[in-house]
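fwd from M.: "can u put these together and see what the complex looks like"

so here's what she sent:
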Amino acid sequence: MSVGHQVDSDHQLARLLQIGIVLEEVVEARSHHHYQSLDDGVRLDPEIEALLEEAAEESAEHRERLEALVDRLDAESVPFEQIEALVEAQYGSTEPDDFDDILYDQLCNEETAYKFYDDLVGALRASEASFSIDRDRLIDVLIGIREEEAQGVEEVTKLMNTRE
Amino acid sequence: MNTADQYVKAIYLLQQMEDGPASTGALADRLGVSPASANEMIGKLESRGLAEHEKYKGVTLTDEGIVRARDALQTYCIIERFLANVLSVDEFQAEARELEPVIDDLVAERLDTIIDRNPECPDCFDPETDACCHLDVVAEHVKAGEQRAD
């Protein structure tokens, strides 16, 4: 066990990027599920519908950027179908009840992703290890994704506030 | 998981193993830090009301410390189960120890939405094997045996 906050090998970095990919896949799969549950509902809310669609698209795009990094570390990605099946299997016990719950779930998704990338960038900056991929480029990619997650938090919060 | 959480979790597990206070030396060994660092952190935990230290006996968690340790252990269990069941990592214990400082509770909670965790968690955690008792830990034991044989 270590009490440090550093990333010091290609292997550890690849593992953390895999976790990032899974987090994006969870967002994507849960957004799809929420979207479908809206479809079954009495009345669709166009704003929430648009938000979920955009969140799923953004997660898919983030996943592709992370997969490109994982490929260069000679590690494997985690197939979306595998995570989709796991989300499906556990969704019943974690399913939001209504529109407000869906928005709250979406807020958790965005905040969690932001925290993950922020911690990862911090751990990379604290490390002096060299990786198979260029550290500056790696950090730039992660900061780019982190900023989009920050925008996501802002968008969901705004929508939640207008519904109060 | 932050440093204080890693400490209270380690103290909680050592108390279980030793059936009494956790000695500073054992705590330092478990966390891979110097006894001086462990002592310093124990002082901080005491000032936050999470632990009590008695000279020559060791450190004991307060009720508040136990609650915090059990939360931390649950987070750790999620990391282990995620590595073993989702990423199919054989040496999930070693990797969980490496990833623990970098994985935040929020992230673990989200990963928990795809993990079939047992309701008794964190009582499922075995301090001797450093693993959730529902996970197969044979791989690490076999490896340790092979290393001893060398």
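replying to her w this: The first helix of chain B runs from residue 3 to 18.
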